[in-house]
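Hi everyone,

Forwarding the result from last night's run.
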Amino acid sequence: MITIVLTACPESLRGHLTRWLSEISTGVFVGKVNPRIREKLWSLVVAECKTGRAIMTFTSRDLEQGYSFQVHNHDWEVIDIEGLHLVRRQSRTYANKSKKPKKGWSNAGRRRRFG
């Protein structure tokens, strides 16, 4: 079993996914495919959904809980804790490390210094 949830992705991607999966709600696809097809569908989602977000859950016999996740362009990340795959929201400090800090005065500093 596989579930894919798309947010802000191109309409053409939804059309490609309906060949293999059923769209039960706007941007929510459900179906049963083998692992090879699942990986090809996920690579298609990653290639087509450049700025949008996608989450895929699928059954997995290897894991104790019986399912796993994959995320693309999301503020969540998949973590493995002693054989359990969980989804964790990244902390703001971790997510903002890649961004360069703004130079200049903060709004509070401007008000105090110039106000």
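The beta strands are 2-7, 22-25, 28-31, 53-59, 67-72, 76-81, 84-89.

Cheers,
N.
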